[in-house]
Amino acid sequence: MTTVDINGVVLGAESFGGGDGAPPVLLVGGTTMLSWPDALCEHLAAGRRRAVRYDLRDSGESTTTDPQAPAYTLRDLAGPLGGRPAHLAGIGVGGMVAQVAVLDHPGLFSALTLVSTRAVAPGPPDDDLPDHDRATMRRLFAHPMPDWTDREAVAEFAAAGAAMGCARAGIDPVAPPPVLAARPTR
Asked: Would you place residue 124 in the very low, low, confident or very high pLDDT band (cuts 50, 70, 90)?
């Protein structure tokens, strides 16, 4: 793992395969890069891509302030993330960040993939958007938050949340995911 400085903010990041010339796939985690399993990142890299996952602010190796009272917005998390078009994928809160990034900087991204997210940040949803399932949210937030600097604790927390989402959707979390055709955003 390494760190990168983007606009004065240090982010923990990990890169898989491809080298600098390979098409990049930027993976925005649900707060932490561990939302994207090693096996998935390695699979993307085996397809001659460069998979890059990173920690959002206030988690992992990234700049940490007070996560209970952040001095930044969702838009700050979505600032320019690279110089050449990349496939952008976001999971959980990373999906919210990814949507804002594509809206604010459409020329930086060739495609967008969203997983287990919604179009708005936490709080009341827009009138035309569904809210999170309340029973699922109660179960998810019944678990204490992990120490975000403890890689193993964060991975266990993320896995427990993913397992809840899989159970609600009737998905076997151990079975390989189906291969879906990617659709460009343009």
From this structure: low
